[in-house]
Amino acid sequence: MKIAVLSGKGGTGKTFVSVNLAAAASSSLYIDCDVEEPNGRLFFRPEHRNEETISVLLPVFDGALCDGCRKCVDFCKFNALVYIKEKPMVFPGICHSCGGCALVCPRGAVSETPRPIGVVEAGTSGNTAVVTGVLEPGEISGVPLIRAALAKASESDRPVVIDCPPGSGCAVLESVSEADYCVLVAEPTAFGLHNFAMVLELVNLLGKPCGVVINKTEGPYRELEEYCAEHHVNILCRIPYSTELATLGAKALIAVRENEEMAAVFRRLSDKIEKEVRR
Amino acid sequence: MKKLLILSGKGGTGKTTAAAALIDFLKARAFADCDVDAPNLHLVAGLTGTPRTSEYYGSQKARIDPEKCTGCGACFDHCRFQAIEKNDNVYRVNEYACEGCGVCAYVCPAQAVELVDDVSGIQMLYTGKRVFSTAQLKMGRGNSGKLVSEVKAALNDHAPETDVAVIDGSPGIGCPVIASVTGVDLVLIVSEPSLSGISDLKRIAATARTLNVPVAVCVNKFDLYEKNTEAIETWCEEEGIPFVGRIPYDHCASEAINEGHSLAATGCPAALALRNVLNEVLELLEVPECA
Prior knowledge:
The structure holds two protein chains of two kinds.
Chain A: E1 2-6, H1 14-24, E2 28-32, H2 40-44, E3 47-61, H3 71-75, E4 81-84, E5 87-90, H4 100-104, E6 110-125, E7 128-135, H5 143-151, E8 160-163, H6 170-176, E9 181-186, H7 190-205, E10 210-217, H8 222-230, E11 234-240, H9 243-250, H10 255-258, H11 260-278
Parallel strand pairs in A: 1-8, 1-9, 2-7, 2-8, 9-10, 10-11
Antiparallel strand pairs in A: 3-6, 4-5, 6-7
Helix pairs in contact in A: 1-11, 5-6
Chain B: E1 2-7, H1 15-26, E2 30-33, E3 52-64, H2 74-78, E4 84-87, E5 90-93, H3 103-107, E6 113-126, E7 131-137, H4 144-158, E8 164-168, H5 175-181, E9 186-191, H6 195-210, E10 215-220, H7 226-239, E11 243-247, H8 251-258, H9 269-285
Parallel strand pairs in B: 1-8, 1-9, 2-7, 2-8, 9-10, 10-11
Antiparallel strand pairs in B: 3-6, 4-5, 6-7
């Protein structure tokens, strides 16, 4: 079973919900796909860590073979190649590693070499196996890292919790692609509602079953509740704002390991999700 | 026109809340929302009227003509993005995975693949006395960096003569963030006193450094855990990054936003703190303080 936790808006509590869902289970695999700002590892403080460097392919041009026909430069749809001093040159950050330039070169002057863009860390924390994709600052796309991190799920038979990046773009899509169920974490504010509506549209588009966790409630926020009712989205639970939870979060402590009440909340949430998935 | 960009690394630290207040304090006549993945600034920008909208073509997408396709599988073999799906020797393109590189069209021996322009977002521009440029990326689309550049270009092209333009950014450190940082005069990082906030602050500062853009840091909800706020201040000092203020946790912020306006007019503690942040920022930008 793979559960993806997403929100659209940042800071609604994706990492809080996914870390605690994973930690509440008797055995689980937590995968942090927010490779731009991975924070689950700060909470889990995983031990027995190993690290794998993830690379993308980057073209290399052999000046001796290149006759300056510029077919590669013309082919590149991303404008990642320029022709300077009678030789093609690549902008590494713009290259999508499609392999097109090597394919179209009539003289075999283009080869490809791996270029590291980040690492996938793996470790354990209690009953939870922790996998984290970490993008190198300055790198543009984390999608290859997300793929590499998610690939770890296929090596494991544990239930998987996927902590997704914010937004609703390609990185989120990649992160939820193999999920059986999506947990949408919404914040009871006008911003929260607006971005919740966006991710709901995304998971509906993908045909994924989903439910909502309303986090940091401070009394009812009618607009969000009504929106859920209108769109027939199941509200899985409401977690009130509390200074205690905020402080635990600030210290990167795992609520279910510190607070018996939160442990019960997340066990119930976990049971509910499991029932929903089986439906 | 000086450009001030608001970023945070971590989401939900209060970028938009801060941006909206600064815009109102400044009575800014030019501003933009570069969080094209999850734009929110329009909800509190106090703009009336209808924006000029235009479709944004991010990239092309491949399309396979089933009439011409012979089922050879060359496209499937060469696609690096797992964007070609195969069902009983019938091939089709997954529009979400396709990055529009054109390799499939190149290798197809039957000329069955065509590249078509893809609308991957909508751009919106409010004009008049105040110019506001924003956009919304279509669900699941990539190329958000290019859309961010378009949002900034639209602001540049239409902004009236003004001292400071305020740009709200997106969380993270990747493509849309990098596109938003290029060419701005200062990045104001809105941090928060959590270990996550600190980790993300360091990553966004490192990213801005690779792009040679100066940064300043403020801490929102500083009283949530003051030990971490102090750690942020110490770190800024060590790094030589100007620290421009502490903003307290304040109910008033979410109340104002739920009512559809910024904190600026509320006079509550967070608003006063943001006012001070603005003054520090204007000094860094070498712009005279506004009334």
